[in-house]
Write a structure and sequence with these properties.
The chain is built from seven helices and ten strands. It is of the alpha+beta class and about 260 residues long. β7 (about 195) and β8 (about 205-210) form a beta hairpin.
Length: about 260
């Protein structure tokens, strides 16, 4: 599923984690997101877009032998919240118990889904439309709360910024434009199920693998996750965008599932 992950951490001396995107991964940290550009590359007569630097995706981690799973999240399970809280405490100045309490208070069911879930079919256009409606309703609700939004609180805590501007209008626009990649024109989809990609943070679009089976709940969670990228912006001078690992930690605080290989448990 693409990670939703935290930087390298090892809770209770057992599981090396990465929490940079929502999924905690065991073993070696996966490579940085690929670059994506508008230049087409030829591969056996088929044109593909070359991956670009501004891609933000949840990457399935390699196992401890460095090999990739044969299928996305095939052997992945959600990491227990207390492990996630312990990992987050290495980067956020709060005790694990405090973070765990916040995670339970801020948890959003729209994100806390099994990915890809027990699906029998590939996602359809009707599923995509339904997922978009759910995410847009959720975004509208959170936007109406302003600074009282749990999403806003999570981003402020993860970033250490006292003030952030949340561009919900842009996030909703990205969700409305989200689309499937059914022909591997965007990615091979051997490491993730969805990504936000573009020439710049402002031009990122949401792409979802259209050839892998997933449930509606999983699809909704994926689109919700990708739409939260580039949502929060600093108001002080300098680079206004948050780093991807900070965004992923904020999402972990509100229920974004952290996955790890079953064999690592």
């Amino acid at each position: 599923q693409a990670l939703r992950y935290l930087p390298s951490h090892q809770p209770t001396g057992q599981l090396p984690l990465e929490v940079m995107g929502g999924v905690a991964r065991g073993g070696k940290r996966a490579a940085a997101p690929k670059k994506r550009s508008s230049v087409a590359a030829t591969d056996g007569g088929k044109q593909k877009r070359v991956p670009c630097e501004r891609s933000k995706r949840k990457v399935v981690p390699s196992d401890r032998r460095g090999s990739m799973n044969p299928s996305i999240t095939e052997k992945a399970v959600a990491l227990q919240d207390h492990f996630v809280a312990e990992a987050l405490s290495d980067f956020i100045p709060r005790r694990p118990g405090v973070l765990l309490n916040l995670m339970r208070r801020w948890e959003k069911p729209i994100l806390k889904a099994k990915i890809p879930g027990k699906a029998r079919h590939r996602p359809s256009r009707c599923m995509l439309a339904a997922a978009k409606r759910r995410v847009l309703r959720f975004y509208a609700h959170e936007a109406a709360l302003g600074d009282r939004s749990d999403i806003a609180k999570a981003f402020r805590l993860a970033s250490g910024e006292h003030q952030l501007r949340l561009d919900w209008d842009r996030a909703m626009k990205c969700v409305r434009k989200a689309r499937y990649d059914n022909r591997q024109e965007i990615d091979e989809w051997d490491e993730c199920l969805a990504m936000s990609s573009g020439e710049s943070n402002l031009s990122c679009e949401i792409f979802v693998c259209g050839t892998k089976k997933m449930t509606l709940r999983a699809l909704t969670s994926l689109i919700c996750h990708e739409g939260l990228h580039n949502l929060a912006r600093r108001t002080r001078p300098g680079n206004t965008f948050l780093a991807e690992d900070i965004e992923h930690m904020a999402m972990a605080l509100v229920g974004d599932p952290q996955l790890i290989h079953e064999g690592e448990l």
